[in-house]
Amino acid sequence: MLVIRGEPIGTEFDQFMYVSFLYFPTVGFFMGCSIVNAILVGFMGEMELLASCLGDVFETVQEQLTVQKAHDSTTAYWATLHDQLRECAKRHCEIFTMLPKLQRMASFVFLQHHIFSLGLVTAGCYVTLRGPTLRENVVLSEYPISVVLEYFIFCQLVERLQDMNRSIGNKLYETDWMLQLQYSRKFHREYRSEALTIGLLVMRSQQRIRFTCGSINAVSMEKFTEFINLSYTIVMFLLNIN
Fold it and tell me: Which residues are listed as membrane-spanning (predicted)?
């Protein structure tokens, strides 16, 4: 409500427009942030499942050979291993196919969140430190704290997503794949194909997944630290000049 010196001003339509211009953009902004957070969590879940599958790929092959009663069949072993690695490689490819779309969407949201957070945190901290009463300080401090927490969650999710991507290659490399892939002239093509697939999965999982803030700066915990330092600098500057 628009209030000046304790008296409401304007018509009901003015009040409605005032609330609409404040409420709906804010709700839309936080909904966008929530959607990006949910998608990041979903990507981490997919990567965790893929890492688990690759870490147990040779155990899965042995279990399937046991079910098929084909332990002594080298042909069945290579065919089963090929199917398992192909399925994992397909899932890995699907993740990296969808990832650029998420990066483009998150880039705009991160930039918007950075600008919005910087203004709100700076203004909230300044008003809180200059506020005359404790009650107003407690109410106003809720907004900067919630925004900083959401900024921290953003950066933490991006860091965890990068770590989860690296864990895919680490899980696969930590298996005894060098012993499992026994070379023979008869299965030279199969050996070369599976070794190449494993090498590609390991190398691609070591590539850094980069999320940017409006294609300007990379989103990371270092970026969060810079944001806190910048907010503190601006607040101290405003307090010193007033």
Answer: 20-43
